[in-house]
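[audit] Reproducing an earlier prediction to check determinism. Same input, same settings, fresh worker. If the tokens differ from the archived copy the diff job will pick it up downstream; this log only records the rerun itself.
[audit] input (117 residues):
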Amino acid sequence: MRNFFVILLSLMLPLSFAACSDDDTPPTDNIYLYTTTANVDAVAGYISVTVATSGTWTASTQDSWLSVDPAGGNVTGHTAVHVTYQANESEEPRTGTVIFKAGNVTSTLSVNQKAKK
């Protein structure tokens, strides 16, 4: 019986060391926008959006009437980002997007601009 416990212990001991290893998983990237939709007038202006991140992030837009400042950072915490929009000279409303990205995580701000009166 004693031999059985010795054999069992000798088999379990290496398994216990294998289960204890350093966690090499990098921290998870996070990004959160306090505002995800903005409704603005037809005249030019800007809005301020608060971004909460866990590290390096970027912001970009494909819409020529929108710009972002700053367009990125490396701050864990909150950052105020200004999204500037040009006047809408069209008689049709328009919508643009700003994509915020931290690692593989994205969050989108939609900017809805009224038509010219």
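[audit] rerun output stored. Observation attached for the diff report: The chain has one domain: 28-113.
[audit] end
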